[in-house]
Each structure stands twice: as structure tokens, then as C-alpha cells.
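Pilot study result, target chain (67 residues):
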Amino acid sequence: MAVQLDDQLMDILACPADHAPLRVGTVADPGADVLTCTSCGLRYPVVDGIPVLLADEALPALPADGA
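Predicted structure:
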């Protein structure tokens, strides 16, 4: 199921690691329940509709999604 977040919220959310914008899902799976950094590619899980923007909880970048 694709993440449903308000556009205004997406405008202010940023990657905790490098402060770059985030996108919903991944390049390979736009419906994934993660927010992906557009710069470094770290993936942050979305649990029950709440983004978990903690570096310790971040998933590694996928080869096609970032650095």
C-alpha cells in the first residue's frame, strides 16, 4: 500500500542525514511504505502512517535509488 502523506508535510520533511528532500516509495517500488532520500538514497520506514525519521531506523540505499 502506498504511503499517503499530505503534500504540505512532504514539502517540509527532509532526510536527517543530509537534509535533502524525500520521496514516497523507491524507484523500483513507488508503492513501498518508505520515504527515500533523493540524494543519499536512505529509506525511512512509514509505520501506521507515521514516518520514522531516525538514522538508526533507516534502511540502506538501494543501487538504483541513490549513492
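One observation from the pilot: The chain is about 10% helix and 20% strand. A full batch analysis is planned for the follow-on phase.
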